[in-house]
């Protein structure tokens, strides 16, 4: 089946809203993004993970749509899986198989690769990361940092053009964080990196600030500075109402 190509390169979010039950989580988001490194910044509960899932086509927006490289990522799942991948905030939400080999092969099989071909590609990816000896390892026994790396390898093996990173390094130590970041930045994939921490997005060309389900600002590094200034101001208050949900 031919991909459902409907617009130009990059990411087009077209008047998208998303409700969960009676609550509006994202409200009329429109974005046109085409830089190779895009940052999305926002507070806890602002809707970042919901936006990440919508960008990856994993959930259907209540209104509007997301086109990536012209592919409607929710409606055309076959084209979407080679267009966009996602790394979740928590690797436990991503890993579903008992062994590393099965975990990496799953996505490759979804792309239509046969069993032997998928195994070869999985091994090549593991070898590229210096982890060929992980092939038959149990996913359950991996440390948190190792699970993050496995998720990254599984998604990289599928060679998507875009990768959505939903705070993928929370809880990792500094060297692991630096190493995984370096891998991501050198692998030639376009990144949408979602974080609550401006330090993660230093040097990114396009920044979107998500605030209570809406785009508060779009632009360059100035948006990060404005966000940081406001966060420090908010942090000086004692009110935890924003976490109440
Ligand atoms: N499955 C769900 N059912 C009900 N409410 C939800 C669900 N998922 C998210 N929400 C609500 O939607 C809002 C946005 O959640 P989301 O996880 O997208 O925020 P976030 O910016 O990723 O937060 P964090 O920085 O804490 O990861 C929150 O108020 C949350 O309570
Ligand atoms: Mg989140």
Can you walk me through this structure?
The chain contains 7 helices and 10 strands. The protein starts with 10 loop residues before the first strand and ends in a 10-residue tail after the last helix. α3 crosses α4, α3 packs parallel to α5 and α4 crosses α5. The chain has a single domain, classed as P-loop containing nucleotide triphosphate hydrolases (Rossmann fold, 3-Layer(aba) Sandwich). Strands 6-7-8-3-9-10 form a 6-stranded mixed β-sheet, with helices on both faces. It has a 4-stranded antiparallel β-sheet with strand order 2-1-4-5, covered by helices on one side. It is α/β, with parallel strands linked by helices and 245 residues long. The N terminus is likely disordered. The chain binds adenosine-5'-triphosphate and magnesium ion (MG). Adenosine-5'-triphosphate (ATP) binds next to α1. This is ATP-binding cassette domain-containing protein.
Number of domains: 1
Low-pLDDT residue intervals, each spanning 5 or more residues = 1-6
Q: Please tell me the CATH architecture by its name.
A: 3-Layer(aba) Sandwich
Look at the helices and sheets and give the structural class. alpha/beta
Write down the overall geometry: globular
Q: Which percent range fits the helix content?
A: 25-40%
According to CATH, the homologous superfamily is: P-loop containing nucleotide triphosphate hydrolases
Kindly report the average pLDDT value: 91
Bound molecules: adenosine-5'-triphosphate, magnesium ion
DSSP summary: helix tally: 7
Q: Whole-number radius of gyration?
A: 18 Å
Q: CA-to-CA gap between the ends?
A: 42 Å
Top-tier CATH class: Alpha Beta
Please describe the biggest sheet, giving its number of strands, its sense, and whether it closes into a barrel.
6 strands, mixed
Number of strands: 10
Give the strand order, joined by hyphens, for the main sheet. 6-7-8-3-9-10
Strand content: 25-35%
CATH topology: Rossmann fold
**What is the helix/strand order?**
EEEHEEHEHHHEHEEEH
């Amino acid at each position: 089946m031919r991909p459902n190509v409907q617009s130009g390169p990059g990411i087009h979010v077209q008047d998208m809203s998303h409700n969960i039950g009676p609550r509006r989580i994202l409200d009329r988001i429109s974005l046109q993004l085409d830089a190779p490194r895009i940052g999305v910044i926002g507070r806890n509960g602002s809707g970042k993970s919901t936006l990440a899932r919508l960008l990856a086509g994993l959930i259907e927006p209540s209104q509007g749509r997301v086109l990536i490289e012209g592919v409607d990522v929710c409606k055309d799942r076959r084209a979407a899986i080679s267009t966009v991948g996602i790394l979740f905030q928590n690797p436990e939400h991503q890993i579903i198989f008992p062994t590393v080999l099965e975990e990496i092969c799953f996505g490759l099989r979804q792309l239509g690769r046969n069993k032997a071909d998928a195994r070869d590609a999985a091994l090549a990816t593991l070898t590229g990361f210096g982890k060929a000896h992980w092939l038959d390892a149990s996913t359950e026994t991996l440390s948190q940092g190792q699970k993050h790396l496995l998720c990254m390898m599984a998604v990289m093996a599928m060679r998507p053009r875009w990768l959505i990173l939903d705070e993928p390094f929370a809880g990792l130590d500094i060297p692991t964080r630096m190493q995984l970041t370096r891998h991501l930045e050198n692998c030639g994939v376009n990144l949408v990196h979602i974080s609550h921490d401006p330090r993660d997005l230093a040097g990114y060309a396009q920044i979107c600030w998500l605030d209570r389900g809406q785009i508060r600002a779009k632009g360059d590094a100035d948006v990060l500075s404005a966000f940081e200034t406001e966060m420090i101001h908010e942090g000086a208050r004692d009110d935890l109402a924003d976490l109440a949900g």
